[in-house]
Amino acid sequence: MQLCSEKTLQANKEGFFLQFADAVAANAGEKWTKNYVLEFLSNVQEIYRKKCKETSKKRRLEAEACVKNADKMKALSLFSQSVLRAPKQDENLSLSLLGRAKILISMAEYSNALADIQLSLRENLQRSLKAEAFWMMALCYRASGEEDRAQVSFNLAEKLLEGDNKRLQLPPKDAVKKKGRSAPPAIGEKHAQFEHASKKISVKTSRELGRYVVANEEIATGETLVVEPAYAACLLPEKFGTLGCPDCANVAFCKAECRDLATGSYHKYECKYLDLLIGSGMSVLSHTALRIITQNSLEKNLEMYKSRSKNRLYSLCTNSAKRSAGDFLQRTLMAAFLLRCLQKSGYFRNKNEDVVPTDEEYQIGEMLLFNLQTLQFNAHEVYETLCFKEQRLKGTKLAYIGVAIYPTVALFNHDCYPAVT
C-alpha cells in the first residue's frame, strides 16, 4: 500500500524527492525537520533547457538529409527537434517548420501542415520560399474544403512568381486525400445539477459507499452519459506536441492556440522550473496537482479557497482519515516543494525570497496538499486508440498519454479498473 501511494507522488525512481522525504522521516524532530526542510527548499532555482541556434541548425540539416534518403519519419522527428530548440525569428525555425509541413502534407495531415506553414511565414520565411509556402497553403485549404481560401493562397503564390519561369498548378479537388475528425457524442437531455451529464443518472451518497452514480431511467447499450472537459490535465513528457514554447525547449504544444493559452497562464509559471520538477521524479499526478493551481490566477484561486466547500473539485474525497502519518508527511513535503516553485516563479504578488510562506501562500499550499490527495483516487488516466488500418478494430492499441481530472466522471467510481472509458 505504501509503495503504491509513493508511486502517485514520484513515478521516476531516479528522482530526488523520496530521498528528501525519507531523510526528513528518518531524522524527524520538530526543530531539525523545520531547519532541514527550509534549507532544502531554499535551494529551489530555475532549471530548464534553453533555446540553442546551433543545435536547431544541426537537427534541421540532419532532417534534410533524411528527406533525401526517403526516411520520412526520422526526418519528421528531427524537424520537430529543430523547431523545439530554435530561438524566435531564427531562420532554422521557419525552414524547419516548412520542411515539416511538406512531410505532413505527404501524410495527409493537412491541418497540422497548415499551422506549420502559417507559422513559418510569421517567423520571417525567406522570400525565395514564400511562393512554395503559399502553394502548400492552398493545397491544405483545398483538402479542408475551403476553396475560396485555397484560391486566394494560390493567387498569392503566382503573384510571388511573376517574372519567374516556374508555373504552379493545384491538383484537382478529388485528388486531395482528406482526413476528418469526429465530434464528441451528444448526451441528450442534460442533468439539472450536473451540466455535463445526462438526466438519466443520479448521484447518491451512503456511509458505506460514499458518493456513487445510479441510473434513474433505462439506458441503452453504448449510450453516452457524460461528456465533460477536463478540469485540469497533464500530458506525459514523451507525448508532447510539435510546437515549442517561445522561451524554453522543455515542452511542445499541439498548435499555436494551445501554446498561446498555456504561455498566458500555467506555463509562464512552470516554464523555467520544468527540468527541476522532472528531476525530482515527481509523477504526472503531482504535476496535475500543480497545474490545477497554475492554470488559474492567484486571485481566482484565493477566491476558490474561500468557497471551496461549494466547488465540485474540492468536494471530492481524499480518504484523509485512512492515510498514514508517513503518507501525510510525503504529501506535505511535495506540497511544500511545489509551493516553493510557485514562490520563485513569480506566481504570487511579490517574489518571496523567504522560504516561510505568507498567509496567502499557506492557503495555496493547503490547496496543493488537497490536490495531491484527491487526485490519487479521482484522476483518470487518458488514453488514445491507435489504429494501424482504417476501419479495423483488430490490431488497435491503447496508448497512455496523460492524466486528467473530471469532477463529474470522478463520481462514478474509485476503482483502479474503472467502468468508464
From TrEMBL:
Any one Gene Ontology MF annotation carried by this entry is: histone deacetylase binding
> Known InterPro entries for this protein?
SET-MYND_domain_protein, SET_dom_sf, SMYD4_SET, TPR-like_helical_dom_sf
One GO cellular component, as annotated: cytoplasm
So which domain of life are we looking at?
Eukaryota
A biological process from GO: methylation
CDD domains per record: SET_SMYD4
Swiss-Prot/TrEMBL keywords:
Methyltransferase, S-adenosyl-L-methionine, Transferase
| Protein name as catalogued | SET and MYND domain-containing protein 4
Species this protein is from: Asbolus verrucosus (Desert ironclad beetle)
